[in-house]
């Protein structure tokens, strides 16, 4: 015999987030250790030797150049696998 008790949608075990709760939220990379974040995302810190010209091409478009460069490399890797 199974327990067929109805689930109460107003159960306080999982309350809705308030605006204050949402305002306190931070990205995972800000609150987790680098090792924990890497395990969750599969990201790794690496060192690359890049030409000044390559860095300048990305840096000219804004401070988020590292993220854009990482995304460009990810896109190339996906396209290479798909080929």
Give structural attributes.
5 helices; 83 residues; 0% strand; mainly alpha
Structural class: mainly alpha
How much is the radius of gyration in Å? 22 Å
Largest sheet: none
Looking at the structure, what is the overall shape? elongated
**Number of β-strand runs:** 0
Write the element-wise H/E pattern from the N-terminal end onward.
Answer: HHHHH
* Beta-strand percent range: under 5%
Give the helix proportion (percent range).
40-55%
How many angstroms does the end-to-end distance come to? Answer: 54 Å
SSE topology sketch:
Blueprint: H1 19-24, H2 28-31, H3 34-41, H4 52-59, H5 65-82
Verbal overview:
There is one protein chain. The chain is an all-alpha fold and 83 residues long. It has helices spanning 19-24, 28-31, 34-41, 52-59, 65-82. The longest helix is centred in the C-terminal third of the chain and has 18 residues, at 65-82. The N and C termini lie far apart (54 Å).
Can I get a quick summary?
The mean pLDDT is 87. Helix content is 53%, strand content 0%. The longest helix is centred in the C-terminal third of the chain and has 18 residues, at 65-82.
């Amino acid at each position: 015999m199974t327990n067929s008790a109805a689930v109460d949608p107003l159960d306080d075990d999982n309350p809705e987030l308030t605006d204050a709760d949402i305002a306190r939220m931070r990205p995972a990379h800000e609150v987790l250790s680098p090792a924990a974040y890497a395990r969750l995302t599969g990201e790794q810190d690496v060192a690359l030797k890049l030409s000044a010209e390559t860095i300048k091409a990305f840096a000219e478009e804004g401070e988020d150049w590292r993220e854009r460069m990482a995304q460009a490399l990810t896109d190339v890797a996906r396209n290479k696998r798909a080929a």
